[in-house]
Inverse folding.
């Protein structure tokens, strides 16, 4: 275990964390605005990957598959929120239970449309290389993942902090009732955030498809990781999701490398402790 | 329907079930056995969800602890294959209860969605251990439980085994029914409806919920023992998130707060998943669709269907007032 080991593992952990950020940020924002945990979030991730595959098969363009898949899943999420979740009003438990049903429906539909095989989303050649820095090879694709998460994270952060609609979202997270009182259309905000969350998860699915692969069951495999991110970082907080994602990415990588027998335990046990000590997560507000 | 008629109706249905199933061929009997095991697990979810208002997404933890305990004792120590089967049942319930007592220290103080998340995290801890702790759990391959206990009754006979599982189910149902009708169960319902009021009335609501959590853990452990012998293979799949989700889905589908609803939900899920799936490839749409419609239109689950129909009839007769009176009080609340 030399320095090289630590550098590579840290790099892998951070790049994995970047992927988890895309997955978790949406879940966190949705919770912040609607007070529900969306259990079909893993399905959005999976569907993002699958739709991207279809786009790549049809057009041969990987770059095109990114926005198209993310937009398509955003529309799916939006429809789900409008048609099914909204009529339940503000009843978080029933909404959560409803998202379970949708997780199953999405799973079955994916199996019907794309079959049971494992797929890989091959990134363009330009990203398939590795760059050597100081004798250590860094895969470009992982660097690309970090860059994407950074760009998206900063863009959302700016939108939240600097725009009127961002202020409305923050107000809704802080106190939805009060926000409605001062004339913010929280109904529209929750629609917007739900679509954005689905968009980000799907984007994560496309990018994650390059190294996790895309296969049936992936949805329920990534879902607990998304939860870990959101719980550690604190629900409804973008910065929290970023830090939570980094911690989970690193804990997962180092856990697997250092204590293989306990690796998942080292990931979820801290999550329990954080929840028990600070139910709102490290950076969440109540 | 009065409570007494309901009890008699449920008992009659169960007796009919126990009579009809063994005459329906070995495949149906196998399915029924599996469904009954999960019905026990779903009831353990219902104690929390339907009576204390706590939606647990980690019930697979106790289920898998019971199952792994059984499998490890049976394969490594040849323990639990004779009369000592009953010891294993007791041990699994104690271990399930002890684990729940430990987990409950973290989970019970959380409410609503936070409770859901923390039970999910706890469930994932157990899954992680089952998946990775190769020396104990044999990792991804799991443990094969090839022999079933024989204590005068030979459980390798599918019919005998069905009756055993059925007896466990009926006993659990009865015990939990007595529990929820007791003052303790009543105060749980009070907590579900309005925890603050119960606190003001002087109830130690944390302790009530904690005890309910432990009881649910013990029942989960029991279902795990039965599952190990039913399924013949104990793998990390018993602890995986989807098992917890399934159990929650069954309880909600049948009707939270009704106990037998868990059995109805389990029967529907297994019926669709294992029977309909052999006939049509789109069975999961039916399952998902039924489930979504239940959440949207039947807050009391399928067990609430008769009341809902009466309500619809009453309102179509232009008796709006009666309809309102019959409207089920929403029991799912955060």
């Amino acid at each position: 275990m030399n320095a090289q080991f630590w550098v590579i593992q840290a790099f892998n952990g951070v790049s994995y964390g970047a992927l988890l950020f895309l997955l978790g940020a949406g879940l966190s924002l949705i919770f912040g605005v609607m007070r529900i945990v969306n259990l079909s979030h893993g399905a959005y991730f999976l569907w993002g990957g699958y739709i991207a595959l279809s786009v790549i098969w049809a057009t041969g363009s990987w770059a095109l598959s990114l926005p198209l898949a993310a937009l398509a899943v955003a529309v799916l999420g939006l429809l789900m929120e409008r048609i099914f979740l909204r009529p339940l009003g503000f009843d978080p438990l029933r909404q959560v239970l409803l998202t379970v049903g949708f997780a199953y429906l999405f799973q079955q539909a994916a199996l019907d449309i794309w079959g049971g095989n494992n797929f890989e989303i091959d990134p363009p050649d330009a990203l398939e290389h590795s760059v050597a820095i100081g004798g250590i090879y860094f895969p470009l694709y992982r660097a690309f993942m970090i860059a994407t998460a950074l760009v998206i994270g900063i863009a959302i952060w700016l939108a939240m902090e600097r725009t009127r609609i961002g202020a409305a979202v923050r107000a809704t997270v802080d106190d939805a009732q009060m926000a409605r009182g001062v004339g913010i259309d929280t109904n529209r905000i929750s629609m917007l955030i739900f679509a954005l969350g689905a968009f980000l998860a799907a984007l994560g699915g496309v990018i994650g498809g390059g190294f996790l692969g895309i296969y049936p069951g992936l949805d329920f495999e990534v879902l607990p990781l998304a939860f870990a991110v959101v719980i550690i970082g604190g629900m409804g907080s973008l910065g929290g999701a970023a830090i939570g994602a980094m911690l989970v990415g690193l804990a997962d990588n180092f856990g697997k490398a250092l204590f293989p027998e306990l690796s998942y335990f080292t990931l979820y046990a801290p999550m329990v402790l954080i929840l028990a000590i600070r139910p709102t997560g490290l950076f969440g507000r109540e | 329907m009065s409570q007494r008629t309901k009890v008699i109706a449920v008992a009659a249905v169960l007796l009919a079930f126990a009579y009809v199933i063994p005459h329906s061929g070995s495949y149906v009997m196998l399915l029924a056995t599996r469904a009954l095991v999960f019905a026990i697990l779903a009831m353990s979810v219902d104690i929390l969800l339907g009576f204390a208002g706590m939606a647990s997404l980690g019930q697979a933890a106790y289920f898998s602890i019971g199952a792994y305990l059984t499998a490890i004792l049976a394969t490594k120590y040849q323990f639990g294959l004779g009369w000592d089967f009953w010891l294993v049942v007791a041990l699994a319930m104690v271990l399930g209860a002890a684990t729940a007592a430990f987990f409950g220290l973290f989970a019970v103080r959380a409410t609503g969605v936070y409770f859901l998340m923390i039970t999910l995290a706890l469930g994932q801890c157990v899954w992680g251990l089952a998946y990775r702790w190769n020396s104990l759990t044999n990792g991804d391959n799991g443990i094969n439980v090839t022999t079933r206990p024989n204590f005068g009754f030979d459980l390798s006979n599918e019919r005998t085994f069905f009756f055993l599982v059925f007896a466990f189910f009926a006993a659990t149902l009865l015990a939990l029914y007595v529990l929820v009708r007791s003052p303790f169960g009543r105060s749980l319902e009070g907590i579900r409806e309005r925890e603050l009021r119960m606190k003001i009335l002087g109830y130690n609501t944390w302790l009530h919920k904690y005890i309910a959590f432990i009881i649910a853990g013990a029942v989960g452990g029991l279902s795990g023992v039965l599952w190990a012998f039913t399924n013949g293979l104990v793998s990390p799949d018993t602890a995986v998130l989807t098992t917890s989700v399934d159990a929650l889905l069954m309880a909600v589908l049948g009707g939270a707060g009704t106990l037998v609803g868990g059995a109805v939900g389990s029967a529907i899920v297994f019926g669709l998943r294992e029977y309909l799936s052999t006939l049509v490839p789109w069975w999961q749409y039916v399952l998902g669709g039924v489930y979504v419609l239940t959440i949207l239109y039947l807050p009391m689950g399928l067990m609430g269907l008769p009341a809902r129909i009466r309500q619809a009839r009453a309102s179509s007769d232009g008796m709006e007032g009666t309809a309102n009176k019959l409207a089920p009080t929403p029991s799912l609340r955060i």
Q: What stands out?
A: Chain B has one domain: 28-263. Chain B touches chain A through 48 residues (CB under 8 Å). Confidence is low (pLDDT under 50) at residues 319-334 of chain B.
